[in-house]
Specification:
heterodimer, A: alpha+beta, Uridine Diphospho-n-acetylenolpyruvylglucosamine Reductase, domain 2, Uridine Diphospho-n-acetylenolpyruvylglucosamine Reductase, domain 3, Enolase-like, domain 1, 3 domains, 4-stranded antiparallel β-sheet, 11 helices, 33% helix, B: alpha+beta, DNA polymerase, domain 1, 5 strands
Chain lengths: 277, 155
Amino acid sequence: MIPYDFEYYRPASVAEAIRLYGGLEKQGKSPVYYSGGTEIITLGRINLVKTGAVIDIKHIPECQVLGFEQNRLILGAGLSLTKLEEADPFPLLSKTAREVADRTSRNKITLGGNICGRIFYREAVLPFLLADSQVVLAGRDGIKRRSVHDVCNGNLRLDKGELLVQLLTERSYLELPHVSIKKRKQWETGYPLITVAALRKDDRIRVAFSGLCPFPFRSVELEEELNRRHVPLKTRVDQAVRRLPSPILNDIEGSAEYRIFVLRNLLEDVMEEMEGK
Amino acid sequence: MHPSSYGKIGLHLNINGEERTVTIRPADTLLDVLREHLGLTGSKPGCLNGDCGACTVIVGDLPMKSCLMLAVEAADHQVITIEGLNHAPIQQAFIEKFAFQCGYCTPGFIMNVHALINRHPQADCETVKEWLKSNICRCTGYTEIEEAVRSCLLP
């Protein structure tokens, strides 16, 4: 049971959602956008999320788009991970999303909710970082498009009241060779020790990570080291590890030292597979 | 659904084919409402965190963990709970295959795999295993549960 009350709103348009947010904020209700809502409910139950109003975005048509416009895949933030997996327009996304939580939970967890969540793994963003996607954001100043790197690489950078509406990805990225591996401390369901997703574009390998730091990230400097093909792989991995951002997570899922140990092996596996593809 | 405000709201729900009206808090989960307001105690509270699956019900044609869903979100959907199954083949299969021990997790498992069988009547082993990962049985009767599911699938 959620131990406090909140109001529930179900806007039918992006403009209505933004208006609602502004009005509720002025009333001091600390509103939150609600998509799948799994995190708001589970953290709310133990008082780690408190809000006076939730704004359910799932009934906004733009948030449910799943299709192509010209040469671009458009995915609405309100799509469930199951729907994305079943439609499979972006195989790397399907593989990565399929490892989030479990099948029944993914019927509820949404793309936007996973990417904008407070729980910092946000694994669904990795394919978009690798594909240089764009995000469509709505806020007080209207609708704008920004690079996913500006908003989602590392800590999430959304302005107050800003709503992630869609993600746009060029069609040319969708079928590129890729790999997605999730390593857990134990079992087959749960948070990652490390998740790595990789994609090969123009004979260069791109990699993005979750579970290594308290944010998902892609690092151009780290990729530079990995792509020095004239250097032995073990040396490249050593150099890449030196380029990691900080801090490295050191928690119940695994110590920082253990994560780096697993990462070295993972990077070798990923590079061998991707260079062979 | 009546307009939301702090305090209670009136909500119409379709549960097991019946129209029901409840007066609830918008913050109430579907699990809270099923058990506390409608007396449908077949959906079990377990972890309340979306991990165990004991509270699974079918919303539309998908299994949902009712602890991870606000009751207001169910307003436009048909909800089926374990009480709404009427001698479904999977219920008999659970009996015949000894697919339960203490039984606490059983309603959640049955609702999940009932949805699986309806959506994927010829599901392969990988699909069955994938769906079963959503539920936890602490008596560890997984083999029998898997056998029960397989016995209900088309060849």
